[in-house]
User: Fold ROK family protein from Alteracholeplasma palmae.
Amino acid sequence: MNLYLTFDIGGTDLKYGIITENETLLFQSITKTNGDLGSKVLIEKLKSIFQNLSTEYNIKGIAISTTSSINTQTTEVLTPSISIKNYLGLNFRDALKDLNLPISVQNDVKCMILCEKDFLPENKYKNILAITYGTGIGSALIIDNHLYHGFLYSAGECGKMMMYNSTYEGLASTNSLVKFAKKVYPHIQNGIDVFSLYDINDEKIVPIVNKFYDNLTTGLANMIYILNPDHIIIGGGITNRGTQFLNEVYSALEPKLWDYFKGKISISLAKTKNNAGMIGAFKFYKSIFNTKNE
Assistant:
């Protein structure tokens, strides 16, 4: 059986696993990315993981999901990472060439959409927008059933959209919500803390969360008008609120849409949490390498 090593390189955590040709994870684990130590240390960590796992598994290729815009032809990192030092310009195939294996690299949100689309009704949606709210905001597009990269491989970098003299992710990411909440309650550590207060109608937190939802749905409405997707998938830790989060989004979004759109915008929450990057990375690997002949 041919097996593959798949990585999901996040700003905080590095997830990795052994995956089969039919996308079953036989093994998976997680460690810290330690991005503050730089890209060279990260590459050595990837090599070490490969060396350890190759003693037990017959690894035929490596699939990588990562933050930042990626030239998927050359595997070069095109944009800096806020979490991984000296990431800009890293070429994964060059850095890992001594492993002598096929290597694919894809942006993390694009990997997420490749994984998540399989949970949607078959052939129902041709144009899909996936968007994640977390440390920043990222998105990915499927247009006419094809993953869209854009001219410079950066299609979907919606977090960089300009809004109110700031950026979309500067106003509507989970990080931004926590930052604004800390101004009134310095002890707040994360989004869970914020929504715990919001759910008990804390008078200082409610207007902050309402403004957050206003900003989030302003950006989302703009993308709906421009892209007119059949379906929207929302991911990120904030979606752990489940249907409550979805209802809050709909409530703030609908007043911003034409009457013609109301009740017709289909939105779902990402179903795969921890494994979407690893599985999506391998789906992309299979799209560029013929795994049957390796």
In short: The mean pLDDT is 93. DSSP finds nine helices and 14 strands in the chain. Residues 121-269 form a domain with the Nucleotidyltransferase; domain 5 fold (CATH 3.30.420.40). Residues 205-227 form the longest helix (23 residues).
